[in-house]
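Example (one chain per record):
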Amino acid sequence: MIPETAPHPLLADSPEQRRFFRADLLLPLVLSSVAEGGEEYVSLGKPTWSRCLNVSGNGVVLVSPKRHQPGDYLFLRIRVPDREHLVCAVAEVIRLKQDPARGGEGWHLACAFRLIKQAEQDLLVKYILHETLEQALENSIDAARDASAVAASPAAGLR
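Predicted structure:
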């Protein structure tokens, strides 16, 4: 049985969470601010290393040292383990809150992908599903071992 998890607090009332499965996975990424420039996006700043806290085929919750406003656009390069290239996307900041782990000095940004190649989105979704299934399998194996250990214990015969 796959354990149910509560959605990330920034995503609690988001309609986007219904389109793709969402998982709490820590993935490294590089982000930079961009602006819409007609039919393309123009870089506005220096790239910053960061990490995803939660990811789906629709978007991410990420940690940012800089405050971005809802409606801001970011260019994201997400590192998917065991893959040759980075998943690249333009994402819009939907919501934000201060990062409690950094004493309010950083930000958790909920971002929705606005521009992502279908092949890269598919790769990201496959990775999320693979990791989620691996975690569920490990959890069920651990539960079976625990049940076997309890059944084999001397106290089990006293029941």
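Caption: The longest strand covers residues 86-98.
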